[in-house]
Amino acid sequence: MANNATDLPRDGEEPSTHDIKLVIGASSLGTIFEWYDFFIWGTLTASGILQASFFPSGNNVLATLLAWATFAVGFAFRPLGAILFGYLGDRLGRKYTFLVTITLMGVATAGIGFIPGYAVIGAAAPILIIALRIAQGLALGGEYGGAAIYVAEHSPPGKAGFYTSFIQASVAGGFILSLAVVLTAQAIFAPVWTDWGWRVPFLFSILLLAVSLYMRLKLSESPVFKKMRAEGETSPNPFLESFTWPGNKKRLFVALFGIAAGLTVIWYTAMFSVLSFLQGPMRVEPTTAQLITGGGAMAGLFWFILFGRLSDRIGRKKPIVIGYILTLLLLFPIFWLIGNAANPGLEEAARRAPVVVSGPECRYDPFAAKQKDACGQLLDYFSKKGVSYDTAQASDIDVTIGGRRVADTSPASLDAALAEAGYDLSQTIPPVGNIVIILLAIVALSALAGITYGPVAALLSEMFPPRIRYSSMSIPYHFGTGYFGGFLPFISQYIVARTGDVHAGLWYTMGVVAMALLVTLWGLKETVPSAKPVPPAEP
Predict the structure, then answer these.
(1) Pairwise CA distance, residues 326 & 333, whole Å
(2) Measured in Å, how far apart are the chain's first and last C-alpha atoms?
(3) What are phi and psi of 93, to 5 degrees?
(4) Which terminus of the chain has fewer CB atoms gathered within 10 Å of its CB, N or C?
(5) Helix 456-463 and helix 301-314: axis angle, to 10°?
(6) Could you give the angle at which helices 506-523 and 488-499 cross, rounded to 10 degrees?
(7) 117 CB burial (10 A radius; 0-12, 13-18, 19+)
């Protein structure tokens, strides 16, 4: 394992307590704002407002998939941003690189707020949106690594996990801030929310950018980087050297498939999947769903700090492995609990009166503007309603609800048959006791995210040598989070649409976590960072 930056001499440049607080505060605040800018698209997509604004109307499922695909585009370009800004961070310094990234992010986010809708400029609207999402992805590719490394390289021995855990919690803080700003803007601009009020959260990033720049301009360069630059030890080509440094290829592989991929799908499932699940299939009133999700996420922030600090004592690998195992055991039960508490009548109706669509060849294409046959049209109807269904092979097209055949399969008759079977598809607000259960379930999901995500900034900083640390850390992290995590909402929504099972999208998370667990067990060496030497094992 490469040396931790905190083990390096600093030639009398040991940061004071005030310096450490400023480093952590400015880095964390900037990270909150940067992730706010990135997550605001996902938050508003979950509410359905962006689908209606920037994409063709007429197929809600298609518009939702396109909106989530646009969300994923930003993630897809994060690796390129990691390569570009990782190179600059290792060549020019940590501080100035993440000043550039946060400026790019703020400008791109504000730009989304100014783009006219699809009804005004047609296909140019989604094209411009995609261009700005690409800019956001590039910026985020350089932001996280810079902030995490900057804090790690200021941390005294035995404190890197604790100090960098504030960066990890700040990512969740960005999601919470996005929910808070959306809810506040909805309340203030309620009469014009669907017209132009929804643009305010994007424009709000201008203020956040100003605060972030003010805070970060007060910082000095990382002492580790200043020492390397003074001694002429910076890498001439950190990108190339990341793949040629002895042992680094294995570290990159483990960081990508064992660490970044696993932790990010858990995090996005705990945040975005819960919000989409409540607002979509469970029919929870949108503002209520956002308040519940934001409240649960805020209550769960302490997990990131707790497990980051704990990793300074017991090591980085143990919490991550335990978190992966617990996720595989608890993910489905937690979501079943959320569903039963959010809309018990709907869940009970699905169990008591299951929907079965029969036909000679029942296939549903979520990307089609219109399904090619009658059976596909029936599946399209139930998918848009968020009603779970099963398919069966039969010579004739047929629908049964709770074993009773529905003779007339027109939308009006199906609506009536579902209502008769106990399917209440109106928006609902769960009772207070049920809301408490949902909050506790989200806190439990946050624990799964915190135990795997809390120690990671310190772990990744320790895995790679200082001269190529920015590049070597950022590249696998953003490939893993960009592709495995960024496409999670899209892939899970697609699986749900194809299967008719509102819980089926969780299998994507389960598969990625299982892969990450195996890679971590195989390739990650345990470390127990401490200010004192670890005593040798007994012979």
Answers:
(1) 11
(2) 23
(3) 130, 155
(4) C
(5) 40
(6) 130
(7) middle
Nearest to 112 by CA among 98, 93, 97, 126: 126
Sign of CA dihedral 289, 292, 295, 301: negative
Angle at 176 between CA 171 and CA 178, to 5 degrees: 100
CB 485 within 8 A of CB 71: no
| DSSP per position, 345-400 | HHHHHHHHS-EEEEESS----TT-SS-SSHHHHHHHHHHHHT--EEEEE-SS-EEE
Task: Give the CA dihedral 97, 101, 107, 108, nearest 10 degrees.
Answer: 150
Alpha-carbon torsion, ordered 236, 240, 242, 247, to 10 deg:
-110
pTM for the predicted model, two decimal places: 0.80
Contact between 31 and 9 (Cβ < 8 Å): no
SS (H, E, C) 23-89: HHHHHHHHHHHHHHHHHHHHHHHHHCHHHHHHCCCCCHHHHHHHHHHHHHHHHHCHHHHHHHHHHHH
The H or E element that residue 405 is part of is strand 404-405
Sign of CA pseudo-dihedral 9, 11, 12, 13: negative
Partners of 442 in the β-ladder: none
Q: What Å distances lie between residue 461 and 83, 89, 98, 150, 214, CA to CA?
A: 16, 14, 16, 10, 26
Q: Rounded to whole angstroms, how far apart are CA atoms 163 and 455? A: 10
pLDDT in tens, the chain (539 residues): 344 433 333 334 556 677 778 788 877 877 787 678 667 776 676 566 777 777 666 656 666 666 767 766 777 787 888 888 888 878 777 777 878 888 888 888 888 889 887 778 887 887 888 888 888 888 877 777 777 888 888 888 888 889 989 988 887 888 888 888 888 998 899 888 888 888 898 898 888 888 888 877 777 777 777 777 777 777 788 888 888 888 899 999 999 999 999 999 998 898 778 888 888 888 888 889 888 988 998 999 999 999 999 999 999 999 999 999 999 999 999 999 999 999 888 888 888 889 898 888 777 776 666 777 788 888 878 877 778 888 888 888 888 988 889 888 888 889 899 888 888 888 889 999 999 999 999 999 999 999 999 999 889 888 888 888 888 888 888 888 878 877 787 788 778 877 778 888 899 999 999 999 999 999 998 765 544 433 333 33
- Say which residues have a Cβ less than 8 Å from residue 104's Cβ, sequence separation at least 6: 135, 138, 139
- Helix, strand, coil share (%) of the chain residues, nearest 5: 70, 5, 25
How many angstroms separate the Cα of 405 from the Cα of each of 71, 373, 390, 408, 443? 40, 20, 14, 9, 42
Partnered with residue 355 across adjacent β-strands are 389, 401
